[in-house]
Amino acid sequence: MTLPVRRALAFALGAALVGAAAGSLPGLTVAAAPGPGLDLEGIDKAVAPGNDFFAYANGTWLKNTEIPADKAGYGVGAQVFDLTSRRTIEIIKGAEGGTDPDSRKVADYYVTYVDQAAIDKKALRPLQPTLGRIDGIVDATTLSRFLGWTLRADVDALNATNFYTDHVFGLWVAQDFNDPTRYVPFLMQGGLDMPDRAYYLDESERMAKLRKDLKGHIGDVLAFTGTGNIEARAEKVLELETKIARAHTAREDSEDVKKANNRWTRKDFDAKAPGMVWQEYFTSAELAAQPEFMVWQPGAVTGISALVASEPVDAWKDYLRFHAIDHYAAVLPEVVQEERFAFHGTALSGTPKQRERALRAVDSTNFALGDAVGRLYVAKYFPPAAKARANAMAQNLLKAFDRRIDTIAWMTKATKKKAKAKLAVLKVGMGYPDRWKDYSGLEILKGDAFGNLQRAETYEYQRNLRKLGQPVDRGEWVMTPQTVNAVNLPVMNAMNFPAAILQPPFFDAERPIAMDYGAIGAVIGHEISHSFDDQGAQFDSQGRLQNWWTEEDKAHFEAAAAKLVKQYDGYKPFPDLNVSGKLTLSENIADVAGLAVAYDAYRLALGGKPAPMVEGLSGDQQFFLSFAQSWRGKLREPALRQQVLTDGHAPNEYRGDTVRNLDAWYSAFDVKPGQALHLEPIDRVRVW
Ligand SMILES: [Zn+2]
Could you tell me if 293 and 264 are in contact, meaning their C-beta atoms sit under 8 angstroms apart? Predict the structure, then answer.
């Protein structure tokens, strides 16, 4: 199976954390989690704050910390990620003794999934009903019926941002761009075994080698079904996938929401995309009564549909056998998993060894029963008092942002009104959703790992189908509370800050508020500002796809941004390589805005009272130190170079130096002209 890859749209926490999520082994890292307050021992007092604030705040920690051998980088993000993984594993294992139905399901799902011996004993038998259906395909009609049966809610263009499905199409049920009061089904392209069309079409040596490996992989998988002529059949399947890849829209175009606003009626499918017998497809997808769809990549729908008619049924059948086995490899015998991993893990991603079964079982349990696990997680690690404090912080941030809209110079009066309307409806969710997902209809059987996974996928699909025709629920979350991440949901005008990101060093309900505002407060401010920048300008207060800026606003915004481009162009992590102020501009604007708004909100929260001193540090000093320590992290040179060249986020140390744009930082640390980070007041950037 393919677990959904979740990447936040406007993820604010940088490469140290992303690297951790992608490559770490949860539960195996020994480094201690950061403490709740500031790490005063990590400070390097030999560095003047005005010369290198990041090194001042983190220098001793940086000197004493080795990047673990299995990681490209390390920092607070990785520490929090590892800690949360350990806790989640404990919770899932501990659910065994639970008495409520959801705890039972969590426990049964997990213990069944880890029991590889029992799975091996069943061989491919659990897949037989699916393989039998494939055997029964004889023409375009029966093929269309089968393809419709594979449609799942496994993609998400704007919220969880997942463009990949191994089925020919994926479904995403979300707010209608043009009428945000209702849900509409979005149909998105899929059907490739490798991650993207470029893998099939690019002429580079590496891609050519991967295609050769894929052909071998297809053959080895088909051989599990036992019949002959494997090599020629694998060749046909690869040919079919290559044709699907040719029909696909390139990733850059898929990410352009303006190209995705294509409303098709049910009849349009027959007229614009002949080949697929759409009536059969939609009937077995349980969408026969749906009058309209949004087609994210119309070229792909037309192209893939034509292949249903033009390609030999036998090639399709082998393609489907291959995909069915590959998709469910995780709950099939070990030899099938090893075959899948040799290609998907080792050949495609360079990972030599598969993570242990128990950790993959945790991932799969989170996929199938994420909110049930999340409910147990927050009961233990995110008490109501923490949620209340996080909510109060969010409210102060919104208030501070509202005041900033009043005073910014670049935005026209009419646009300010629209910005305020959008701010007024913004729903900043903290910790966990108001309503949990209901799993009462999901059957989890002890001893049926395959069926459990298949039913979980179907259950999620049907949960999404049920949304059609219902009022839009802006309180729905796209992340589980145990996810170390945060996400901006642009169409819903909502944000999710899961409980797992609301922990030290980002947040702690027990410490002075200055530290929370400096760390997670700046992240929340960063995400809020994305709803109002050139990207956020695409969706109005209702979530309608409609640019609400004037040309004048845009020009003013760009002029204010030009100073920031120059500031970041000046950062040189290597003598031969500087940060690109242009590439990182949107994120840098959000960083400056986030920090400034967090500072205002922190002053608001004090309500005129003085901030308590901690270890001789004033409130403002705590605020800025906490900010710079929340960016604590280091990367190996190749990873840092790659980030500088390709990532829209600047490296952590420069994000920590955002402080130089705020007047309050100068007085808090007595920063003088001539020091490296000192900016003349006129060069300090204020976009918001
Ligand atoms: Zn961002």
Answer: yes
pTM score of the predicted model: 0.88
**In Å, how far are 92, 115, 327, 338, 345 from 332, measured between CA atoms?**
22, 11, 10, 10, 17
Distance 359 CA to ligand 1 centre (A): 30
Q: Tell me the pLDDT tens digit for each residue of 329-388.
A: 999 999 999 999 999 999 988 888 888 899 899 999 999 999 999 999 999 999 999 999
**Rounded Cα–Cα distance for residues 251 and 247 (Å):** 12
Cα–ligand 1 centroid distance for 590 (angstroms) = 6
Tell me whether residue 69 is exposed, middle or buried, using C-beta atoms within 10 angstroms of its C-beta: 0 to 12, 13 to 18, 19 or more. exposed
CA torsion, ordered 350, 356, 357, 358, to nearest 10 deg: -140
CA–centroid distance, 290 to ligand 1, in Å, is: 36
199-255 pLDDT per residue, tens: 999 999 999 999 999 999 999 999 999 878 999 999 999 999 999 999 999 988 898
Q: Is residue 428 a contact partner of residue 394, using CB atoms and an 8 Å limit? A: yes
Neighbours of 682 (CB within 10 A): 6
CA of residue 537 to ligand 1 center, whole Å: 15
Distance 41 CA to ligand 1 centre (A): 30
pLDDT of residue 26: 33
Please state the φ and ψ torsions of residue 656, each to the nearest 5 degrees. -65, -30
3-state DSSP call for residue 340?
A: helix
